[in-house]
Amino acid sequence: MAxxxxxxxxxxxxxxxxxxxxxxxxxKVKDLRNAGLTRQVRQxxxxxxxxxxxxxxxxxxxxAAKRVTKKRSAxxxxxxxxxxxxxxxxxxxxxxxxxxxxxxxxxxELPSCKMGEEELSKVVLFTNRAPLVLAFxxxxxxxxxxxxxxxxxxxxxxxxxxxxxxxKAMSLGLEKGKSAEEEGWGQGQPSVRIMxxxxxxxxxxxxxxxxEESSSDPKDTEEGGPTVSNSTNPGTEPALWGxxxxxxxxxxxxxxxxxxxxISGELPIYTAQxxxxxxxxxxTTAPPSSESPDPPKKKSATAVAAEKEHNxxxxxxxLDSLYGSWSHVLxxxxxxxxxxxxxxxxRPDVETGVAGWGGKGEVKLxxxxxxxxxx
Length: 375
Prior knowledge:
single chain; 3-stranded antiparallel beta sheet; 48% helix
């Protein structure tokens, strides 16, 4: 039986080297595996023609295989040379032991809030809309998908922000054409609904915080899809990544992909680290009114960073209080449905149209707390 690594390698070969559209490649991987061609595709022309049922695609696959084989042979023939000190240093760093799931989650911890609601209600932040959507989504997923680790919640929330930003850009005429989702780049991938948006996801098989990463391979269901139980929470959805379809489309059209995305296997995801970094830099304290007699004092970069981190903790505390007041009386689906409306009620006011794109404004935490369920 082909291992997961072999299947990913085969998918990478078909969609990358052979330039087969990802949707088509994903549909043929199982057939190629069943034919025993996971490692020696290039040696079986007749079998490949039977699988793809298209002479042009079959030759495309074989030609790509020849190019890859030729490159590997040439690389093997080159004499080994010692790396430069700089390259050696970078290589040693990259080969260091990867973080365990527990270490990964600990490294992503977000600031907490130790302030009472009376004090919170006096806080006014200054930000733009995108990071506020991100904060709303991250806090929401803690209540609607409690079994998802923080790394997954950050990735999924960033996927929501990106989808929302693209929709807004389309409505303003800043972007044109169909989205990657509309063109079918997410076909075959599972999805979840967050704040009313369907987000394509990548399952993180074996990611177990308590028992660390599992070494078991996913098995095939009758429908051909993988299925494993989450060893941390049996019977629940495994940990997820938010899938970056726009980066996937760009990478398959020879254009540079978004720097905030990283390839996981073959598919680009929204990284938890990028989402966390975005949150930590986004929320300043609202500037004093123009009527204030004392001009604001200039702060050091360290003080500004500390203030932003503190503000993020206050915002997440207010949001957690909001969601927590409703989570025990509303179904998860209803809580998700209401979240977007709550965001709209408190988002910063900006100019309409293109002039307001990326604009900043005030966010009063009292407005968030006023949305709590009244006892």
